[in-house]
Amino acid sequence: MQTKNLPKGIFPIIQTPFDRKGELDFVSLQNLIEDAIAAGCDGLICTGVAGEIGYLTEEERLKLLSFVFKTVDSRVPIIVGASSDDVEISRKLIQWSQDHGGVACLIQVPSIHYKNQDSIVPYFRQMTDGFSSPIVVQDFELNGSGMSLDIITRLVSEIPTISGIKIETLPSGPKYTAVKKALGNDFYVSGGWAVTQLIEALERGVDAMIPECAMVRLYKKIFLLYQNGNEDKAKVLFYKMLPILSFTNQEVGNSIKFFKCLLVEKGIFSTAKMRWTEPEWDNYSHQTARNLIHLYLSLEAELDGSE
User: Fold this and answer.
1) 85 is in which domain, residue-wise?
2) Residue 72: which CATH number?
3) Is 273 a member of any domain?
């Protein structure tokens, strides 16, 4: 179990920007990377689910990774998102990560394997055979309980490179604690979709939270306040964010669309164009999104004024 290089803190997933023609927008991508680093991110994840990887070609994923690694230039660690329905593509991405200095690979449990969980260990054994790269398993079942604790412990005991887990299941909180209790505090536990329970995650000793890149400044401030013993201030700031999280976490596509709109408003992205199936917002949805974008910008402005 290789955990020493897995950084703690706020470790966001890079959204994939597209231009008006739907092609990769590398100018916006550079803007996003620079903003996330300036905001204090503790690392970045490239080609994760929130980056719309299901709608990217293998060539596009490799172009994104090459650009991100070159732009970051070792300023923060990078985890390579290596999830794919095609095992060979995942293996190519793991190899790419090893060759280019990724600190780990994030690999999602394919949904089909939740129906027969005994297939999960063989799947990851096939995926990772011959590699030394640390693997963070993405336990991603938004409407279910995900992997059983028995399967998680088998993964760790039978596959030495399994170094951590990203828990995105219902409920997440008790599972964070159960995994830590079973595997020890050195086992890397992170959360993502359950960012609406960020304070609970910090109370339970979660090592990292993996949101998206648009709101890193607030997430990092909350994390630092909590770690420095200012739990009450951390809670007050977090509670101010909850209307935004309540709206965005209704559905993954809804989240992607909102945060791309926020990044356009911040002048980081040129468009909010998606390849993920775009949710249909009516006039009420658009107005709610505008109000919440203004709420976030006001909270960020207050934060800047307090530092």
Assistant:
1) 9-228
2) 3.20.20.70
3) no
The token pair that represents 40 in the structure block? 């204090």
Is residue 261 in some structural domain?
A: no
Domain count along the chain: 1
In this prediction the pTM is: 0.96
* Exposure string for 88-110, b = 16+ CB within 10 A, e = fewer: eebbbbbebbeeeebbbbbbbbe
Per residue, the 3-state secondary structure of 66-132, as one string, reads: HHHHHHHCCCCCEEEECCCCCHHHHHHHHHHHHHHCCCEEEEECCHHHHCCHHHHHHHHHHHHCCCC
299: tokens are 């909270």
Whole-number pLDDT of residue 306: 59
2 has a pLDDT exceeding 90: no
Is 50 a domain residue?
A: yes
